[in-house]
Amino acid sequence: MVIDSGTSATGTEFSSGIPTELLGEARERASGLGPYQLAWWRLRRNRAALAFGAVFLLVLVLCLLAPVYAHDIAHTGPNDNHITQTVKVGGKLEDVVNSIGLPIGPTWHSRFFLGADTNGRDVAVRLLYGGRNSLEVGIVATLITMVLATIVGVVAGYSGGLLDGLLTRALDVIWAYPVVILGVALGAILAVSGIDVGFVKLKGSSLMVPAVVIGIVYVPYVAKPVRGQVLGLREREFIEAARVQGQGTLRIMFSELLPNVGSTVIVFVPLMLANAVLLEAGLSYLGAGVQPPNPSWGTMIADGISSIPAAIHLVLVPGIMLVLAVLSINVFGDGVRDALDPRAKIRIGR
Amino acid sequence: MRRFVVRRVAAAIGVLFVISVLTFLIFPTIPNGDPALRIGGRLATAQEIAQIRHEWGFDKPVYVQYARTMEKIFDGTVVSYTQGVNVLDEIRHGLPATLSLALGAGFIWLMLGILFGVVTAIKAGRFADRALTVLAFIGVSSPPFFLGALVIYYLGYKAGVVPLGGYVPLSQDPLQWFTHLIAPWLVLSVLFIGIYSRVLRSTLLDTLGEDYVRTARAKGISERRVLARHVLRNSLIPIISLWGLDFAQVIGGGAILTESVFSLHGVGQFAAESIGRLDLPPILVVTMLTAFAVVLLSAIVDILYAVLDPRIRLSG
After folding, report:
1. CATH superfamily to which A124-340 belongs
2. Separation CA B18–CA A169 (nearest Å)
3. B191, B139 in Cβ contact below 8 A?
4. By CA distance, what is A346's nearest residue in B?
5. Which domains does chain B carry?
6. Tens of pLDDT, residues A161-203
C-alpha cells in the first residue's frame, strides 16, 4: 500500500485487468458476466485459495462451538481451575499440575486434550474460547477499519481542497506512529479508563476496546488507496454527467463513487482481518489487548512464554493455531485479490 | 531541490508538533490518567496529592504544561513521572541495542527479500517459486514473539546454540554482541522478507513484460545483464521506499515485540514498559523520536527515488 496508490487505482478496471493467459477463455465466458461474477469465476478456479478459505471456516466454526466442546466433551469452563485435581492418563492417575508447578502436557483424551496450563485450566477449552475472542476482535476491528476508511477515503478524494488536506494530514499523523506503539498506547490507556464517547460506552475489560483500537490504527492503510482511486475517478465522464444532472455531493459519493471503489475495499478485507488478528495477539502479549482472565490466542502465548522452558505446549498450541488461522486468511485473501484485481499491487502485512 | 527540502522540513515540524500535542492531550483527558495520583501511590493523602500537583506543575493550564515539557525535552532534563529517571538518558541507554537490531535486521531483510524476490520471479510457476511463496506466506502470518519464543526454547534451552536473550554492547565484546543479536535479527526479518519478496516478485514480473526489456534482449545482451541493469534497477524502487519506512519504524522503537521477547532493553521495550505504567514523558519522547525517524527516512527515500529514476521530479 505504501508503494503507490496512484497505479493501483488505475489497475482496477476489470476489462483490462485479466492476465493474458486467462484472456482467451475468460473472454468467452466473460460475455454477459458482471465484474463480480467474473471475479467469482476466477476465484473458484484457484484451488489453493479455496482450500485455505475452507481451513479458515473450519477454525471459525470450531471456535464458535467452544461452549459445546467445553460443556459436552471437556466438562469444564475456560476459566475453571483444576490445579489440585488428578486426571486418568493411560490407566494411571496423574496430577493436573504437579508438586513443582509443572502442568500436564497433552493427554489426547477428552479431558485436558491439549494439556493444562499452570493454573490447571484446560488448554483446549481455552484455545477455542480464546480463538473466539481473537477472531471476534479481528472481525469487529476489520469492520471498523473498512467503514471508517471508505468514508474518509471517498470524502477526502472527492471533496478535495481544505477538507482533503485536513483528512490527509490526519492520516499521515496516524501513519507516522508505528502501529504497535500506537496500538499499545491506546490499548493500555483505554483498558484502564474504558471508552465513553457519546452513545458508545465500553468498560476497560471489554473485548471491544482492543477492537476499536485496532480498527482505528489501520484506517490509513485502506483510506489512502481508496482516496487515490477516488482522485482518479473524480475526473471521469460519468461523475461529470452525474454532476450535470444535478445530483448532490452525497449522492455522487455513495451511488456513483462507492460502487467503483468496491473491489478495492473488498480486496483489503481479508488482508486487514489477518493483520488485525496478528495485532490483537501482539497487543495482548504486551498486556494492552484482551484483558485476563478472558483468554485470547495472544494472552495464551504470553502466558506460555512466561513458563518457558517448563511447558512449551503452552506456547505451541495457541501459536500454531494463530499462525494457521492468519495463514489461511492471507492465502485466501491473496486469491480474492487475484480474482478481483489481477494487476493491483497491494502490500500484505506491515 | 531547495524548495523540496524546505517544504519537507516544514511538513516534518508540523507532523512532530501535532503528534506531540495529541500524545500530550490523551493523558489529562482520560479518567485515572492523572499523573499526580500515580506518583503519589495508593496511600497518598489529598494534601500530598495537591503538593505533588503543585511541584510538578499539574495545576497549571494544559498549554503551559505542554510548553514546559517540550522545553525540558529540548534541554534534556525531562524526567519520568513514575520512575524519576531522566528519559533522554534512558533512551540514550537503549539506543545502541535498538540501532544494532535495526541495522543488522534491516540489512538481512533487504538482501534476502531481494534474493527471494528475484528467484521467485525468474522461476515463476516452478518448484522454487512455489516453495518460497509458501515460506513467505508463513512468514507474514507469524507473530515475532511466537517465533522468538520458539527460537529461545528450541535453539536456546534445548540446543544451546543461541543465548536466551539480553544485549551485550559491541564495544564490550563483539563476538557476544553478534551471538546475542543473530536470533533477534532473523526473527524480526522474517515478516519483512515475506513482504518484500512478494512485492518484488510482482514488480519484476511486470517489468519483464516491458518493451524495453524485449529490446535489450533483442540487442543480444546477456540475460544476466538484462536482469541486473534493466529489470532489477527499475523494480527496486518500491522496495527502497518500503525499506525506508520500515527501517525508520524499527529505529523508533517499532520492534517492540521482538525487543521484548529477547529482552534487548532497547527503545521499544522502554516504550512498552512506560506505556504499562501510563508514564507520559517517555511515551512522548519515544513517539516523537519515531515520528522524526519516519519523516527523515521518507524524505531520504524520496531523494533516492529521484536518483534512481530521473523521470520522478521532487515535489513537496
Report:
1. MetI-like (1.10.3720.10)
2. 10
3. yes
4. B199
5. 94-277+291-308 (1.10.3720.10)
6. 888 888 888 887 777 776 777 788 778 777 776 777 666 777 7
